[in-house]
TrEMBL record, chain B:
Belongs to the binding-protein-dependent transport system permease family. LivHM subfamily. The keyword Transmembrane applies. Its main location: membrane. This is Branched-chain amino acid ABC transporter permease. It comes from Aromatoleum evansii. The chain crosses the membrane at residues 12-30, 35-52, 64-84, 96-116, 142-159, 190-213, 225-253, 265-285. CDD domains: TM_PBP1_LivH_like (cd06582). InterPro entries: ABC_transp_permease, BCAA_transport_permease. Pfam families: BPD_transp_2. The keyword Transmembrane helix applies. It is a multi-pass membrane protein. It is found in: Cell membrane.
Amino acid sequence: MLRLEDLSVRFGGLTAVNTVSLSVGSHEVVGLVGPNGAGKTTLFNAVSGLVKPSSGRILFDSVDMLRTPLHRRARMGIGRTFQVPQPMHELTVRENLIVAQRFGTGAVDARKIDEVLDFTDLTDKAERHAATELALTELKALEVAKALATNPKLLMLDEVLAGLETNGKRRFMGMLKELHEKFAVGILIIEHDIETISNLCHRVAVLNFGELIADGTPDEVFRDPEVMKSYTGASDA
Amino acid sequence: MSELILQALYSGVLQGGSYALIALGLALVFGTMKVINLAHGELVLLAAYMAYMVESKLGLSPLFAIPLALVLVCTCAVLVYFLVSLIRKDRELNSLILTYGIGIILTNAVLLIWSADVRSTSSAWFQDAVVVGPFYSMRSELLFFVVASVLMAGLWWWLSRSWYGRAVRAVSSNRDAAKLMGINPRTTEIVSFVVAGILASFAGVAIFSYGVIQPAFGHALTVKAFIITVLAGIGSIPGVMVGGLLLGIAEALTVTLASSALQELVGMALFLLVLFLMPNGLFGAKARRG
């Protein structure tokens, strides 16, 4: 469904993403891991269109994404969340979803909105304002809900679990698992927690200094000594 | 004395309706495009001169100028949009220079076509006094306050209930997130300029029908609209409506209690005071989490 071919993103002299080739099949859950600054979020930004790749190709359902304007990508089925939640502040939770659905799918379906609200545990907060009246867990849930409302084929989740306490994390993870089945989406997820990734993902891709250093099942990847070295930040010593 | 003050309050509110219309246009465009359109007051003035033309050349009521003003002003607003959208670098700052320049060109175009004379309506129907309870006003003042109220209610409905209105708010509050939801920001930008043009058209005809106009007046209107937007707090639409009324009242009270020479000054004083005491404006956004 999503295919990156030799994708590179350079900022001046810095190569944030270096000739990465990666694919995500429909209904597949792929984890993207790597130390801070490895280029994970930059890769997300390239796929969703917030940064322009320096070279390489991004194909989604065989369509060249680099020729597709940002706002069309949602319509094609790419949904994403941000590490720092990005609600549309002045809108209520429900309005956030309505706008996402109306412009992300071209149609309005109040039942689907209720379903998404219910699924993300936001029904009670539907008429609240996103900016000032939600707790962090709820803001993260809203991120997921907003992406779901656009009816995505691929959901890109950027550290949705970071900053949540253990209970919240467990609940959220249960939700992600259920979401994968219920809404029949492929998922590309950035996450630091190895347990979460092993639990959730069919495949794991590891980035280090912008390069893809491993791509395989969680078992294979987390047994790779080179991966573990980059991951735990161990030096050459 | 207290009657005098109450009467000033009443006149101020009526005047404030038009101020709010003008400021709402400025605020909408700033919301979607983060551009302060310094030519906005000149657009209002164009509508006012359309009203003058229709009355003086065709001998019709200035009300008939509204369709003409809508076409001309909205066209100009869209033109301003396209010129601004050509700016690639530092648009927020460079657009100030561009729109200020457009304002100067428009002012001088008005000067060239209609000369520097002060114009006002000669319609007796407009200028007749109407009495509401203990208060007096010109008929046109009351009429256009009603028009402004209807327009503001319509705008409120549009922003809070319609798809496009919600998209405009979505782009204003988080541009990137809105794009990722599938909203084309360029369309909402054009729409906000057109809506600003519609509000400016009515405000312009209103200003001619109860006041005096002259070519330099456009710039003063931009300043008033800017003051109101800052008073309200950037991004607060209801705040802008209240801010418009506040400026109207402050000006009317100054004229009544002090002197009409100080009318323009009071807005500035209010502006400084609010900036010092409440930098986020009276209705500005609170600090945001997340």
